[in-house]
Inverse folding.
């Protein structure tokens, strides 16, 4: 990271700490905001949060690795999470999964070269009555078919 | 500090989260409990584990450790509590109402056996090839519970690469059973914060920040995690093969210095009770193994007192008389774990750290200069080994600046555990060895050097000399038998004030060229403090940062390990408060038995200033050989 | 997301925002607790702890601060009733929290909303803002002097185990979502070490109705031990999946009829951590005393491969176990490996039986509800569908 980027990151984190409060209970909201904006939580950001909340960097790393929606490596602009749990599975998740993999040219767990899409599985997203379902960033899409899923992804800019 | 409050350890997981009433004789102060049909009464909030101990029932534990907060994660200690649907972890269950407990029902036995089976299924490696063979809590449990097969299979490939990047601590996570004792040691007990649980579910493992090698994170090498690991997942970086090689090589002159703490603890490795001193038996054993000379680290400790004490007097003189800008309080620098801690976390206070090297490194520099000259040996052919209670000493002797003799001052730091194994490997039963003395030219040292091993010992040793220098009175006349009791014991932070009074003594010849008289100290009060364990060190440092009471101290002793060196990361396993107490008793008893108990009275110290370090302490040569500098490391990990 | 017109007996009956808050604030805390006790309302998350008892313990606790937490970390596979409540009936949930705050003496309410439901966040926050404007939140609520209460929403980040109340609290405190040792319970030392009530969304949603119409009215529905109604999240092989409000005690057969499920082989009651009920037991009733459930009903038609279903469940637990305690962390892996052995035909019955025994140990020795319930599916599916799995198409003959 360049010095300028570091300074900007420090400033951003200081503002978040200001907003949520300088206590450990603010950790998840802070991490969530950084994840949303930067698509991951950079190493330096983890250490800055650690400094400002007076906890150890490894504790931040530990928390990040516990939660599926937080990551330490950069994700694409759109994170596609296809539900893999049984109800969606029974309603045709596999065909949708294959179609998305083919269309984006990546496997689950990977990010497209242009950093536009990251493809992941999610455990039950609470759309069992309207499966198969996927969440793209925070938006939810239901009753997917292979065509519908591809259509949705192709409309994302 | 303050802002994270007490929440680092989840409140519910602090031991005795139901506070035990101060007056248990009052109404509701105790509660009756029936354990396997035996009724007893215990203070409210006692855990089932403690209650069982009282009636002589032993409950197996793995994640539980006397030094650490409760985790309740291994589940091996489960018992049946009447009326509850599930089994309860006895380590974490506070008794607040009358309950009936069964500690050995079929359900309990089956559960425990299952848990052992599960842990073994993921525990890589064979016991034969493990350094903890014979001293492994998992192995013991498997034996106790009659495990004769791998019920749920046994992993045949290591899950993780061994991390031996560190000079001090080797991590083999394929042997880890996730009891998290190391995590609680590193974060809660030591507040260093290197290790935590990483990942979730079946991917959970103990790791460092971004999974970096241990050498690249803020590890202070204290090795306390090793002492509390129930299995062989953590161990010290063992140099004994290289030492054997040196011993077997006829052109090499292999010398060893032994620190007081290993001598008070090594007996434990040979089945002796904690607190059995083995100093002189060890001398014989080491010679039989093949070491050419055996020296007493305490000699260098005495030297440290003279150097560090002189440095303190100079700092005070410069501050009070010359009104110069001087960093005070002065901090001790003998604990390499503490030194690395301050380099990372409080680099702005490095000027406060005494520039005097630790006894190990002072001795190393003298062995390859003074001793080499005296004995007529080419220092290039000397292999210098240090028997230490410490894993951080391995890192310390490898610091690039530790070569003032022109060679690597100390070649190898060896822990008590490794030494014991070498002795066993040589077929020697240590307790049966005849006693013998240390080798000249350094010979025997003072009791002051000896008590360096216990928390408060460096301060006591320093005061024994300083008080006598300044007041002109014998230390024995001020403190009974020269024992400075307020500095002893295992309280986390100790504080003491010593009023100098109006009568001062004569300035000793050794430092006369620095200061003409003591008049400037008349009526002054010397303020000192002692902290052991880096969590306590952190408390003092934060207090100093905020201008609190400790910022007005003149001299502060810091030891990285709980209990001081006797509780070091290289000491025999297990470690408990009781064991550390016993080791301390052994050290203080040995000190009492010695004739010379003050560093400045050590004749060999007097001699070395006469014959070798002729310009005295804190002089040019002493600075070159006996003093060092530190590195501003900071808290960021690249 | 379509908003359905719903009609129901209790939760989905007529309700106007703020109505119950006003009525509650005219009553004493004891009176509210009395009605709640009368109603015999039990926790809707699945464990079924009496709500009045929980509230009473926190109400009676002496503390400078107390909390009411709404557990909206609905993560059990097959459960989506809270989604319906929060999207369509937020007034019930939030009013319930305000009433809880008043009754137990808390001034802060926190909704722990699962990260997967982030799309609701804006509308829920807008809703809270509207409540503030109407003085249903904030200082001196609806003119009640000294009663200050507000609600904040905190997001989860994708961890099923945070639905366990102490793991949820850990997560709120900024830690890994690892369950705590109990006792002590959250009612003594909960969020920030303070007495805390953690209630399921649906539990809180029942409160306004009970306050308005009384415990006696509530008790009219359901069975003796399971009073009131229950929201069922129905998914799988049926014509009309969705959220249904039915009285407790409804049998599985009746429910299948309502949702249009034909040629059903099995019903998974209570989600992945629940039990799998075969056709022969479809006359069982859905109630705490019989087939208990947090609301998840998954229907499997005749052509479904039950071993495949079980494999999917176990994969879920292997990933979602928090990983701290031995029985759950390694146990689920072993059960999961066992299923793969069956799939490949590389098993012995002796080993499968050992795994079933292991499942029993996990049920009693795991630290929290996750590990204590994760073997349910393993044990019930292997038991109830052994014909299919070991002799039929789903598996191969054992050695």
């Amino acid at each position: 990271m360049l010095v300028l980027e570091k300074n900007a990151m420090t400033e951003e984190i200081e503002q978040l700490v200001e907003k949520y409060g300088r206590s450990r209970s603010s950790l998840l909201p802070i991490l969530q905001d950084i994840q949303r904006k930067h698509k991951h939580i950079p190493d330096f950001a983890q250490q800055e949060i650690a400094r400002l909340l007076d906890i150890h960097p490894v504790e931040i790393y530990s928390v990040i690795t516990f939660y599926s929606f937080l990551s330490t490596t950069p994700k694409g602009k759109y994170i596609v999470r296809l539900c893999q749990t049984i109800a969606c599975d029974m309603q045709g998740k596999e065909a949708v999964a294959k179609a998305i993999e083919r269309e984006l040219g990546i496997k689950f767990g990977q990010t497209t070269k242009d950093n536009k899409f990251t493809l992941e599985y999610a455990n039950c997203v609470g759309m069992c009555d309207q499966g198969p379902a996927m969440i793209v960033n925070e938006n939810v899409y239901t009753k997917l078919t292979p065509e519908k899923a591809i259509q949705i992804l192709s409309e994302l800019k | 500090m303050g802002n994270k409050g007490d929440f680092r350890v989840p409140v519910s997981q602090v031991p005795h989260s139901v506070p035990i009433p101060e007056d248990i004789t009052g109404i509701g102060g105790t509660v009756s409990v029936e354990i396997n049909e035996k009724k007893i009464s215990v203070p409210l909030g006692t855990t089932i584990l403690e209650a069982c101990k009282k009636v002589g029932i032993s409950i197996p534990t793995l994640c539980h450790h006397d030094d650490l907060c409760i985790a309740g994660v291994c589940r091996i200690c489960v018992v049946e509590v009447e009326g509850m649907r599930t089994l309860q972890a006895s380590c974490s269950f506070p008794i607040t109402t009358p309950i009936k407990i069964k500690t050995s029902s079929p359900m309990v036995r089956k559960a425990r056996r299952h848990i052992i089976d599960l842990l073994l299924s993921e525990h890589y490696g064979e016991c034969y090839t493990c350094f903890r063979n014979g001293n492994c809590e998992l192995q013991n449990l498997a034996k106790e519970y009659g495990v004769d097969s791998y019920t749920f299979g046994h992993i045949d490939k290591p899950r993780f690469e061994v991390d031996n990047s560190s000079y001090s601590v080797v991590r083999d996570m394929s042997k880890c059973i996730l009891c998290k004792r190391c995590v609680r040691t590193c974060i809660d007990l030591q507040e260093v914060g290197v290790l935590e649980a990483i990942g979730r579910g079946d991917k959970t493992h103990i790791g460092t920040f971004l999974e970096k090698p241990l050498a690249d994170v803020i590890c202070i090498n204290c090795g306390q995690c090793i002492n509390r690991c129930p299995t062989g997942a953590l161990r010290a970086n063992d140099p004994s093969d290289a030492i054997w090689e040196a011993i077997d090589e006829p052109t090499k002159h292999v010398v060893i210095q032994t620190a007081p703490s290993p001598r008070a603890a090594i007996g434990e490795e040979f089945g002796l009770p904690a607190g059995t001193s083995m100093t002189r038996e060890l001398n014989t054993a080491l010679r039989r193994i093949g070491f050419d000379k055996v020296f007493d680290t305490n000699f260098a400790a005495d030297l440290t007192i003279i150097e560090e004490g002189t440095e303190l007097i100079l700092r005070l003189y410069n501050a009070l008389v010359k009104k110069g800008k001087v960093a005070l309080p002065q901090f001790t620098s003998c604990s390499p774990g503490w030194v690395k801690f301050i380099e990372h976390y409080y680099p702005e206070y490095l000027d406060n750290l005494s520039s005097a090297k630790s006894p190990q490194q002072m001795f190393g520099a003298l062995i390859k200069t003074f001793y080499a000259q005296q004995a007529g040996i080419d220092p290039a052919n000397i292999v210098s080994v240090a028997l230490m209670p410490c894993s951080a000493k391995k890192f310390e002797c490898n610091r690039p600046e530790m070569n003032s003799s022109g060679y690597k001052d100390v070649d190898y730091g060896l822990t008590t555990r490794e030494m014991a194994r070498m002795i066993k490997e040589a077929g020697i039963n240590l307790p049966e060895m005849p006693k013998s003395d240390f080798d000249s030219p350094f010979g025997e040292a003072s009791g002051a050097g000896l008590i360096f091993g216990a928390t408060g010992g460096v301060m006591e040793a320093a005061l024994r000399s300083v008080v006598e220098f300044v007041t002109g009175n014998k230390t024995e006349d001020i403190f009974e038998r020269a024992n400075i009791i307020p500095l002893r014991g295992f309280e986390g932070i100790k504080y003491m004030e010593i009023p100098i009074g109006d009568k001062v003594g004569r300035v000793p010849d050794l430092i006369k060229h620095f200061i003409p008289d003591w008049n400037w100290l008349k009526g002054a009060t010397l303020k000192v403090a002692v902290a052991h364990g880096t969590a306590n060190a952190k408390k003092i440092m934060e207090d100093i940062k905020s201008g609190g009471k400790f910022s007005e101290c003149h001299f502060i002793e810091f030891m990285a390990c709980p209990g001081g060196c006797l509780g070091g990361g290289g000491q025999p396993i297990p470690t408990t408060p009781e064991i550390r107490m016993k080791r301390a008793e052994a050290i203080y008893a040995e000190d009492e038995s010695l004739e010379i108990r003050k560093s400045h009275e050590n004749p060999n110290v007097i001699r070395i200033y006469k014959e070798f370090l002729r310009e005295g302490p804190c002089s040019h040569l002493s600075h070159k050989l006996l003093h060092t500098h530190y590195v501003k490391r900071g808290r960021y990990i690249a | 997301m379509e908003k359905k017109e719903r009609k129901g007996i209790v939760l989905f009956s007529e309700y106007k925002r703020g109505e119950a808050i006003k009525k509650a604030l005219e009553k004493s805390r004891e009176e509210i607790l009395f009605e709640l006790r009368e109603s015999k309302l039990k926790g809707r998350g699945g464990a079924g702890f009496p709500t009045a008892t929980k509230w009473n313990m926190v109400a009676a606790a002496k503390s400078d601060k107390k909390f009411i937490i709404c557990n909206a970390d609905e993560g059990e596979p097959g459960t989506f009733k809270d989604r319906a409540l929060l999207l369509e009936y937020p007034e019930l949930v939030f009013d319930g929290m305000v009433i809880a705050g008043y009754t137990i003496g808390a001034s802060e309410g926190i909704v722990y909303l699962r990260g997967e439901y982030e799309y609701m966040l804006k509308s829920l926050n807008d809703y809270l803002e509207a409540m503030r404007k109407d003085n249903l939140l904030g200082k001196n609520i609806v003119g009640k002097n000294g009663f200050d209460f507000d609600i904040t929403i905190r997001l989860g980040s994708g961890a099923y185990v945070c639905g366990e109340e102490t793991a949820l609290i850990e997560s709120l405190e900024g830690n890994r979502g690892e369950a705590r040792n109990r006792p002590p319970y959250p009612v003594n030392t909960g969020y920030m070490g303070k007495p805390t009530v953690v209630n399921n969304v649906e539990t809180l949603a029942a409160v306004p109705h009970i306050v308005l119409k009384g415990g006696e009215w509530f008790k009219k529905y359901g069975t003796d031990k399971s009073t009131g109604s229950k929201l069922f999240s129905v998914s799988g092989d049926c014509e009309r999946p969705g959220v249904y409000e039915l009285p407790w005690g409804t049998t599985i057969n009746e429910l299948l009829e309502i949702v249009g499920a034909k040629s059903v082989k099995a019903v998974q009651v209570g989600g992945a951590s629940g039990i799998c009920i075969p056709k022969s037991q479809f006359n069982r009733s859905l109630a705490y005393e019989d087939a208990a459930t947090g609301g998840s009903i998954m229907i499997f038609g005749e052509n479904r491969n039950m071993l495949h279903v079980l494999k999917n469940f176990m994969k879920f637990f292997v990933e979602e176990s928090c990983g701290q305690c031995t029985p759950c962390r390694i146990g689920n892996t072993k059960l999961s490996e066992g299923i793969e052995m069956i799939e490949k035909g590389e098993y012995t019955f002796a080993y499968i039986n050992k795994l079933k025994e292991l499942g029993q140990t996990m049920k009693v020795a795991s630290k929290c509800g996750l590990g204590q319930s994760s073997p349910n599916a393993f044990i019930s599916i292997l038991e109830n569908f052994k014909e299919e799995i070991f002799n039929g198409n789903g598996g191969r003959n054992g050695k």
About this structure: The two ends of chain B are 24 Å apart (CA to CA). Residues 1-17 of chain B have pLDDT under 50 and may be disordered. The longest strand of chain B covers residues 525-532.
